[in-house]
Amino acid sequence: MSLPRETSAITLSLSDENATAALAARLTPCLAPGWVVHLVGPLGAGKTTFVRAILRALGHTGPVKSPTYGLVELYPVSGLNLYHFDFYRFATPEEFYAAGLEEYFDGTGVCLVEWPEKAAALAPGADLTITIEPRPDGSREVRLTASTPRARQCLNRLAAP
Ligand SMILES: Nc1ncnc2c1ncn2[C@@H]1O[C@H](COP(=O)(O)OP(=O)(O)O)[C@@H](O)[C@H]1O
Ligand SMILES: [Mg+2]
Questions:
Q1: Which of 55, 107, 113, 114 could form a disulfide with 47 if both were Cys (CB 3.0 to 4.6 A apart)?
Q2: Residue 4 lies in a domain
């Protein structure tokens, strides 16, 4: 017997920030303690905007600023500890350990990571990778890639009609 193939990637076109917010709101119910989400894309792609939309969907009403200088911001919201990281300023991947960041990835929080590639192989693996690419017309092409069973389950729910 063959089971239906699980969805491991979805590509979407998001015409504006409202579309980004709507997608974030649909993804948010998947998030649970231990989830790691990587956000990949050039400066200005909309990574921080996506994180902000997830936090709004969880009920956070305060500001959401880029954690570029602090490396990590904690948002306790909806019973979750949501950690927002930005590794953009890493000169070398070893800064991940030098900054003592691995202890945040202990499975108790939800970790959203901008610029995970700056930590290279030291970055804890993602359940879900969100790749955002700006298009010349200002829209965004967004690819959601699932790397764990729970993320594939999430994408299956998202893809269901
Ligand atoms: N569809 C879209 N999704 C997300 N952001 C968008 C979109 N269209 C335009 N933007 C704008 O692009 C910018 C993205 O900035 P930001 O989220 O800080 O990028 P990053 O964190 O990837 O560097 C914001 O000014 C946002 O308003
Ligand atoms: Mg950012």
A1: 114
A2: no
